[in-house]
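anyone else get weird line breaks when pasting these?? whatever heres mine. first is seq + tokens for prot A
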Amino acid sequence: MRHFNSHESLPSDDSSETPPASSFVPSTDLETVMQHFAEIKRRGLPYETAAARIELLQKILAQMRADSEGSSEVRASFQHELAIASLEHLNAERIQQVDIALGACEEALQFYTLAHYPSQYASVQVTLGNVYRERAVGIRRDDLERAVACYQEALRVSTLADSPYEYAQAHHGLGQTYQLRSEGARQDNLEQAITCCREALGVYTGETFLFEHASTLHTLGSAYVRRVAGERRANLEQAIECFRQAEAIFTREAFPREYAQGQHFLATAYSQRINGEQRDNLEQAITYYQQALQVYTLDALPFEFAGVQNNLCIVYWQRIAGERRDNLEQAIACGREGLRVSTLDSFPFRYAM
């Protein structure tokens, strides 16, 4: 998924709300639309402005279809932006948003071919890889293989020498996807994930791409939590170090969602940690999960809220401190909170877990 980066406008200090797309008069004039689009993006981080961007883009694309106006290149550009915004829209209708992103990428690629628009083609391939990685319907194994193929296709164009940022994007996507991959040996996939993350970090340094640097550290830390090779104790300590480095960048004030994600990652690592006392590690994990829930609320980020509640359920079941009866009751309560979002219809895999 595309993240905030140094090529984009910084979040505005203006505390006013993001202007709704409905406040703009639809226009197929490229300059006017892009001015409206840029105004929306300046009002916050990507996930904060995603809904308004989607509304504007869908109105413009609908008007272009109805009036048969606009060049194919402009339509393809808007379709790609719609795909990006749909992936960044963190609401309860996650399956529908991912499907919108998939359709938008496929439409964009009808015009952005490798032969005629290699740079745009590669960029859409990265977004399409993100779509397949996030997809929650269909056969999971097949979607992850499609994601890997998309990132590798992008790397046919985006080389380290010619397109370093896009090269790093594709490698970060591969780092995320190889961790989830079921095809092939799990140990090999996780080692590949670590290699890809380190390749991305070669471009995403803390000096040039601060956000991407921290985001890739999250992905690398997750790979170390899952790692099969090496000593388990050392892998978990490496993961914690990655998450702590990212925490220095992803503060709650500047990047609340990423801060909460980091707290969730730290909690997961501490819940499995071998160093130190197990009682203390589990208490620290609970603290980190509770800090994540200060941002991951049911209303604002329901999917993430459910994930933390599910993990809290496990930690309370494992808890050593406190009364066993109370811990089990707390575990049940957290599990039920998670099921408010992870229903059989919406997220069958999570519901079953």
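and prot B, same format (seq, then tokens)
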Amino acid sequence: MTMVRFADRHVKLKIILGVIVPGLAVALVWWFFVSCGEQKKMRNTFEMGTRGARRFKYRDLAAATENFSQSRKLGQGAFGIVYRGDKLKQLDRQVAVKKIVRESSEGHKDFFAEVRTISESKHKNLVKFFGWCSRGHSWNILRFMCSCFWSKKNSELFLVYELMTNGNLDDYLYKSESEKVLSWQTRYKIVKDIGSGLFYLHHECYPYIIHRDIKPGNVLLDEEFNAKLADFGLSRVANPNNKTLKTAAIGSQGYLDPQCMKDGKVSFNCSSDVYSFGIALLEIVCARKHREQIWGLYSSGGDVVEAADSRLAIGGNGAVRREMERVIVLGLCALPSRLNTGLPCSKQ
């Protein structure tokens, strides 16, 4: 009786294994081919999105930033955190690594926009881009097949830039101690650097590029206080057959052109950047003064230099006063909502 039961169990086991093993094999083969297709689709998406830009390995970025430790953190914005990296293996130099923490659109549109824009744009007043990294998007098919078991937090995107040792302009205008206040000579140089970078984007790139987030926080300074535009996450390349770009109204509060502050899609063009540039100019000269106060002096025929940052040593230097006045008036002229002589684009 015992032998019969054992034989029955043995037969049942054979039947079960005979069904399960082939089924698992078929499922595995199916999974393999589906994964191959998905991996190919993902790889094509990244190759088209990054257009051949250098891809770094995650382990090299982690090593350079001490696993993205807080002590290496340089700053944080709405869409990313920036870390200092020392001697990145493939470059043997210090870098700034931007970890993307949030995107304003699906399909990595903002990430690809930043990679394409900055990698194809070469100018002394644009921050230098070295490459990108994707953690959780493996080119290895076996790892890719296992990726469905990974948590979403392991899917991360990174951008690698040159390290700008003197940080961003906003910190110097609003957070610096008195001994670190930028002199007018340095500020005037920064004004010209920003203008040069913006002119390049609008008039020397074809199709032209709209930055969409010009502000002191996105102006980085190197060891000699040369200024470079950074953070191209919101930038868009214009349609070569159209002077305007229809897209969602997005940008930094206080710097976004009021004409673009509407629900739904709005028209962006180079004048949208120029408005933001105008606000930045007023802040560079006047810092904490409100633009309405500056406009009041100008419209009443007063001396607009009175609105200049009180921490600046102006004295009786006529040349400095004329430079300040020109920058202030230029900033006001970039705000078409306040003046009928608003500048249509940075070339003027």
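btw re prot B: The chain has a mean pLDDT of 78. The chain has two domains: 58-162, 169-333.
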